[in-house]
Design goal:
By secondary structure, this protein is mostly helical. The chain has 26 helices and two strands. The protein has a two-stranded antiparallel ribbon.
Length: about 650
Amino acid sequence: MVISNRDSPEATAATTIQETEMDCRYDGETAECENLVDRLDEDEDSSRASPTAAEVVIPPDGGWGWMVVFGSFMCNLVVDGVIFSFGTMIEPIAEEFEVTNPNVSLVGSLMSGFYLIAGPFVSAIANRYGFRVVTVVGAVLAAIGFVLSNFATSVPFLCFTYGVLGGIGFGFIYAPSIITIGFYFEKWRQIATGIAVCGSGIGTFAFAPIGKLLITHFGWRGALLCQAAITLTCALFGALFRPLKATKLKDIEPDTENSEKIMDPSKLPLATRLKMEEAMKLMRKGSLDNDHQHSIPRLFGVKNNSDYPTISDVYHTISIPNRQTADKVKRLSVPFIPEAQRFQKKIPLLDIDRTKPLVLPKRSRTTSETKDPREVVRPLYRDDIFFGASLARLPQYTSRTSVEYNLAITRLPTKNDVEEEVGPACQLCPEAFRRVLGTMLDVSLMKSHSFLILAVGGFFTMMGFFVPYMYLVDRAGKSGIDNMTAVWLVATIGIANTVGRIMYGVITSFPCVDALFVNNVALTIGGLATMFSGLSMSVEYQFAYCVVFGLCISCFASLRSIIVVDLLGLENLTNAFGLLLLFQGIAAIIGAPLAGAFMQATGSHNACFYLSGGMIFLSAVMCYPLNWVNRREKKRNEIRTREERSA
């Protein structure tokens, strides 16, 4: 969407002030309107120097997007395949370095933890440099870590090269492969996301037996080199993440006249005009006041992304009166005022073209000094970028047309943000990075009791999540099960995980389904199954346990974004997702080594499964009253808001 001025900036400002004064006399609200006129007068100089334009990214819902889905699927296959099959390497590494298995499990735990902890930082980098570049860098970094691990002389050496470097590299691959689906798909988002994340289960199914064969033929060091080569292919898959251009909407003509779509400020309510002018004034400042900001965003000199105006906040819209016209663009409803109603000053609102950024730079530069402004796209400024389920669950989507929805969930960059992008200077810590990182690490959300319960519950879930992957093969081998059969136990978890993701996607596609309840029931069953997994070491019983565990634990990743939106709202999804990744990353690092230490202390492999299952079960029990807590919290907030308004 583009807002541009036909008249000169001076005439535009003068006309706007005159129109506002007339509206004031007409509405009889002199005091408020005089304030608006003063603000317009104060901003006249900045308006002359910096005309404002805007665009919005409309997900194409297909086309090249399916190639993006394929690339995301393959990246998930490689990353999770390597991580979840690490258990096959524990024993040979422990034998060579003459250490215990729990000591070696720390290597895999560090990788699991760091690829989650890196999520907020990787997302911020991707917001500035794009998914393609970040994924390629991650593939190279992880491959380097695996090659260096081939020369390991101790477990601490492996902890750094394989665990930390490899984990961070995988974080650079994993985060873009998940986020990019939400950027390319709207109507088919749930299906596209489901296909992409199925790569995780299939990767576990394939890599566990393949990894065992590689270790048998080449040793664990040779297997690491093979993993490095496989990981490098993610650079090719990441190259499929072609960046989307922002779309201008123009030339959507009515059936019988050749009128231009414009916005008439005089037709808007006074409160709306006040809100628009305030938002546009903030945008022109380039950076917002930080007087009332919380610690993390203030540290980065930005605000939480939800505090910035959306496109629909700034550019008010009304509906086209002719339905046939609207059908020319997918679910499109745009402002329309006939040509005959135009006054001297009117703002063209919609313009289909792909050439300008959301906010034009204040200084004019030559073509050789600037980048193509079409590249100024900020995927993490979308409120729904981490939402992987059907958008039909969102009232923001069902109550609006497609374009209106995208305008309502897309936050505008500031003028300073765009100038950093199109300018020739290199920015070490640009606003596009700081704003996303400040949002994802904004700890003010922890004041919410609902979020705290959800975060602590996720922490305990992740504490027990990786334990079966790490110790299942070792326990089966010690119990007399053939080594290759034991490896197929992990593969079974992988294929069950894939089936579970599809199953939960279908179940939660119905808006009436309570995703939190489904999650709690599944985790309860998964936790109890893990606790009692050692009742029998027969092959049949162990495979049955793996099926149940894979089906149950897959809900954790599938339903996470739905639960956050149901409890905290779409505007808090990015903030909550960033903090949850930190909670889960820390839990992943300490979970398996702690279970291993518990196993050593008791002398029983079953002990670590008791601990793992107990943690998963506890996380479910904690979240059963969460809906009740959330309702009470929302009610208290409503009462507080009413009291503040009446004060």
